[in-house]
TrEMBL record:
Gas vesicles are hollow, gas filled proteinaceous nanostructures found in some microorganisms. During planktonic growth they allow positioning of the organism at a favorable depth for light or nutrient acquisition. GvpA forms the protein shell. This is Gas vesicle protein A. It comes from the Bacteria. Its main location: other. One of its GO terms (cellular component) is vesicle membrane. Keywords: Gas vesicle. The keyword Nuclease does not apply. The gas vesicle shell is 2 nm thick and consists of a single layer of this protein. It forms helical ribs nearly perpendicular to the long axis of the vesicle. It is found in: Gas vesicle shell. Belongs to the gas vesicle GvpA family. The gene is gvpA. GO terms for molecular function: structural molecule activity. It holds the Pfam family Gas_vesicle.
Length: 74
């Protein structure tokens, strides 16, 4: 069986549609310290998804929309 290479390119609209359909999570943790003294700590979790995708996965882990809005305020 021979392998064939696909040369099709994706448009920006197709990429955005795929990201919104599947969702993407960016999780970052940064800690800056000097001589053992913590100066700055940054924790960020960025979720990009459609509302439908978010609600589907949030309900699977028991998270409600009210829970996530209170997390965003903290």
């Amino acid at each position: 069986m021979a392998l064939s290479k696909s040369v099709e390119s994706s448009s920006l609209a197709e990429v955005i549609d795929r990201i919104l359909d599947k969702g993407i999570v960016i999780d970052a943790f940064v800690r800056i310290s000097l001589v053992g003294i913590e100066l700055i700590t940054i924790e960020a979790r960025i979720v990009i998804a459609s509302v439908d995708t978010y609600l589907k996965y949030a309900s699977a882990i028991g998270l409600t929309l009210a829970d996530s809005s209170s997390i965003m305020r903290n």
